[in-house]
Amino acid sequence: MKIRRVNKVILLALFAFAMIFGWHTAAWSHGDKIQIIPEKLNVRSGDKLQVKVMGLMGTKTATFNLTGLSGKYGLGQFDISSDDFTQVLEIPADLPAGNYRLTVEGGGKSAKVVISIN
Amino acid sequence: MDEEKFKKATGLSVLYYKVPQHANTIWYSFGGITLFCFLAAMVSGMIMAQFYSPSSATAYASVKYISTTTGIQIIRGVHFWSANLGFLMLIIHMLRIIITGAFRPPRIINYFVGLGLLLMIFLIYFTGTMLRGDQESYEAMRHFMAVNKLLGPIGAFFQEDFTLSTSMISRIFALHTSAFQIILVAILVLHVFYIKYFAISPKPYQTEEEYQTSLNAGSTFMGHAKLLGILSAGMLIIIFGLAVFFPPELFHAPKPGVEMLKPAWPFWIFVPFENFIGISGIPLGMAIVGAYFLLFPVIGLLFRSERKMFRIVYAVVSVGLIFWFAMLIITYVSPVQSHFSSH
Q: Given an 8 Å threshold on Cβ–Cβ distance, is A35 in contact with B280?
C-alpha cells in the first residue's frame, strides 16, 4: 500500500516534469532572430565602437541607443542597405562609467546587448 | 584524561557507531572523497576570492594576475583540479549507489537528496566556468543566458540586462560563492544525516541476517573516517601534483559573437544535443539525464524480486554508460559549431 502511494507521488512528479518540459518546447518556438554583436564588451567613454547587426529586415534605417542607470543616450540613426551590416558608433565622452544596454531598432524590431563603459 | 573520557567530552564517541564491514572499503568511500575534493575547492576558492575582481571590466585581468603570480597560481590549480576530480569522484560514487541498489527504500529519500546535491554541484561547477572573463567564460555565459531565455519569466533573472547596476559576472560570482554554496551545504547536511539515519546500505543480495552479522563484526564509522582520511591525503597529493604540473588554461579575452571552444568535460554530454537541434538541445539533454537518474528509484519500486531488479538496473547502467561514452567521443571528434546566431 505504501509503495503504491510512493508510486503515485513519483508518477505525479514525472508528470510535472513532463509539463515543465512541454513548456520548454513551447518556449523554443519563439526567440529573437536579430542580433547585435559589438567588437568588444568593455569600452571607454569617447571611444569608437564597431557593431555588427544581423537580421534587421524590412527597414531602411537603424537607430542605436545606450541605456544605463543615468539615462538613455542616442547614438544616431543610420541608413542601411542590407539586413546584415556593420556600423561604427561613437560613445559619448561624458558618459558615466557603468553597464549599458546597447540597442538597435528598426522596422518595429530590436536587438540588445549589454556593454561595460569605463 | 583517558581515551574514553576524551571521546565523551569532545562528542567524538558519536562517531563510533557501527557500520557494516563492507563500508570500510574504497568502493564505499567515494562519497567521502567527493566531499573532501569539494572542501579543497571551497578553501582554495576562498583564497582566490581575495585576488579576484568580479566585474566584466576586471575579471579577465584579475584571473590573469592569479594565473601568473607565483603561489596564487597553484591555488587556482588546486581549485580547478579539486573541482574536476570531485566531479569525477561524484560520478563514481553515484555509480556505486546505483550498482549496489542503495537507491531503494528506505534510502530512496536520500537518493533524491543526492540528486539535489548533483544538481547543485553541476551549477556550482558551471558558474565557476563563467567567472574567468576569458573566451570560454564568455561562451559559457552566452549559453547560460540562452538557456535561461527559453525558461521565459523564470529565466529573466539570469539575463544580463535584468539589472544594469551590477554586471552579470558579479551576479554569477555571488551565486557561485554564496547562494549556491549555502544551498549545497544545507542539502549536504541532510544527505549526511540520512546516511547516519538509514545506515550504510547492505550489499546486493545480502540477507538481513548477513547484514546484521556484518554490522556486529566490529567496524565503526571512525574506521571508515580513518580510511577516508588516508584516501583524502592521497587525493590532496594528486591535486597538488596536477596543479603544479598541469596548471589550468586561461584563454584569450573574449571575442564577442564568436564560438570557438568546447565546454568543460562535464558538459560534453550535452554538446551533441546542441549541435543537433540548437541551443534548446541543452535543456533537452538535461531533461534526459534527469529522467535517467529518476528511473532507478522507479525500477526499485516496481520490481520486488531483487534478482530481476538488479538485472534491469545493470542493463540500464550499461546503456547509460555506453550512451555517455558515445556522447563524449562524438563531442571530442566533432568540430566546434556556433549556436549563437540560432537564438
A: no
Q: Which ipTM value was assigned to this complex?
A: 0.73
Whether residue A10 and residue B341 make contact (CB cut-off 8 A), yes or no, is no
In sequence order, what E strands does chain B have?
A: none
Is residue B215 included in any domain, yes or no?
yes
Q: What is the pLDDT of residues B230-250, one digit of tens each?
A: 999 999 999 999 999 999 999
Burial of residue B60, with CB atoms counted within 10 A of its CB: 0-12 exposed, 13-18 middle, 19 or more buried: buried
How many residue pairs bridge chain A and chain B with CB atoms within 8 Å of each other?
80
B309 domain residue, yes or no: no
Please tell me the total count of domains within chain B. Answer: 1
- pTM for the full model? 0.86
Using the 8-state DSSP alphabet, how is residue A69 labeled?
T
- Containing domain of residue B72, as a range? 17-257
Q: Which residues of A touch B56 (CB under 8 A)?
A: 41-42, 99, 116
DSSP H or E run through B137:
helix B135-150
Q: Is residue B263, in this structure, part of any structural domain at all? A: no
pLDDT, tens digit, for every residue of B104-158? 999 999 999 999 999 999 999 999 999 999 999 999 999 999 999 888 888 888 9
Question: Quick one: closest CA in B to A103, which residue?
Answer: B161
- Which of A6, A21, A35 is closest, CB to CB, to B341? A35
Find where cell 601534483 sits.
B241
Q: Let me know how long chain B is.
A: 343
B265 domain-assigned: no
**pLDDT, tens only, B274-294:** 998 888 899 999 999 999 999
Homologous superfamily of A35-117: Macroglobulin (MG2) domain (2.60.40.1930)
* Residues in chain A with pLDDT values less than 50: 1, 24-32
Question: Residue holding cell 528598426?
Answer: A106
